[in-house]
Amino acid sequence: MSEIQSATVGKPLVNLIESSGVSETKDRTRNAAIVCLGGDRIELQPRPVPRPGDGEIVLGLRVSGLCGTDLFKLKTGTAAPGTVLGHEIVGEVIEAGPNAGGFAEGDRVVVPHHVSCGDCLLCDSGNETMCPTFKENLMDPGGFTDTIRIRARAVRQAAYRVPAHVSDAQAVFVEPAACVLRGIDRSGLRDGGTAIVLGSGSMGLLHLLTIRAARPGARVLMIDPAADRLALATRLGASACAAPGEDAAQTASDLTAGFGVDAVFDTVGGSGPLRSALQMARAGGTIVLFAHAGDGEQAGFDLNALFKGEQRIVATYSGALAEQRKVFDLICDGALDPSPLVTHEMPLDDFQHGVDLSVRREALKVLYTQSRTTGSA
């Protein structure tokens, strides 16, 4: 049985993941980070332990999630040498600077890496994730680090204390689930509507869970070629599942009495899935792009069909403060529990192993913990 097949709803997290074996005792005088060397090469390197400035906090890493964007940058070699990737983190405050919003040593914190300015034309127009200020990374140096300094703007506007009843494996999804929720909101999907999610990887399944939490009356069809991932989607609450192609088209038609679905969420990327999405969405429906395409890839579809069908194509690249707050509340309230998507947990020393598992589709969500050197005194 694969790691993915073994993940079931309601099991304790310890039964879902490979154990990291790292001691709870941490050496705060040591620090290490996964550093990009160019291309797809990485190395675990020692780093100085950061100190917080005014309004800042320093977190000891508890968990950091491997994101599809991280994989994309490693695969394409687009991360500049010296870059430290990673942005889905839960940490524990080990030092707080002055004016740090009441955060104190020992607080468990989840925080995103981007915060918009809130004052420019893009922010005023509801396009906060396109704000030039939003692009600044507020994690120094990045999430795949034992010890991380969080800049003041993120501390002030986007950091949340994690309540005791919420696990690290739930809280770490605040940032990616906020990106998903932004797409759901932009799609116009109503409670009671119908949706298709293309792809049942970690982000596709996170779409399923977030739709079920935010639009509990919606019906969701999951499409993927892998039977084990579709079986997991069924256990996570999918209304129907199908392989790509004629099977999927027929299932979508059956689900909607031939009209087509209200919204299609593409977590695969590329011109082929986009054409399929347009065919399965109803007249007036929405296609949400939520994945990278190949470098320079061009879309190819019948423009007149889009025009006469009054369909919409929208894109969701990230999530803003409003979505982060909504997702945090959904997780704290118990409406959203993404932890069944976690299949592996390992120390930063084994970073490449987690990447390899993900590339081979043998893992859904990989969480990294502190390196063995720092994680055990």
What is the CATH level 1 assignment of the largest domain? Alpha Beta
Q: What is the overall number of helices?
A: 14
Cα-to-Cα separation, first versus last residue: 36 Å
Please state the second-level CATH architecture of the largest domain: Alpha-Beta Complex
* Total domains: 2
Query: Structural class given helices, strands, pairing?
Result: alpha/beta
CATH level-3 fold name of the largest domain:
Quinone Oxidoreductase, Chain A, domain 1
How would you describe the oligomerization state of the chains in this entry?
A: single chain
The fraction of residues in strands falls at: 15-25%
Instruction: Tell me the helix content.
Output: 25-40%
Average pLDDT, all residues = 91
**CATH homologous superfamily grouping of the largest domain:** Medium-chain alcohol dehydrogenases, catalytic domain
Give, in order, the helices and strands: HEEEHEEHEEHEHHEHEHEHEHEHEHEHEH
Radius of gyration from the CA trace? 21 Å
- Strand runs, count: 16
Poorly predicted regions: 1-25
Summarize the helices and strands and which ones pair or pack.
Blueprint: H1 3-6, E1 32-38, E2 41-46, E3 57-65, H2 68-76, E4 88-96, E5 108-111, H3 121-124, E6 139-140, E7 147-150, H4 152-157, E8 160-161, H5 168-171, H6 174-187, E9 194-198, H7 202-214, E10 219-223, H8 227-235, E11 240-242, H9 246-255, E12 261-266, H10 271-280, E13 281-289, H11 303-309, E14 312-315, H12 321-333, E15 342-347, H13 351-359, E16 365-369, H14 372-375
Parallel strand pairs: 9-10, 9-12, 10-11, 12-13, 13-14, 15-16
Antiparallel strand pairs: 1-2, 3-4, 3-7, 3-16, 4-5, 5-8, 6-7
Helix pairs in contact: 6-7, 6-12
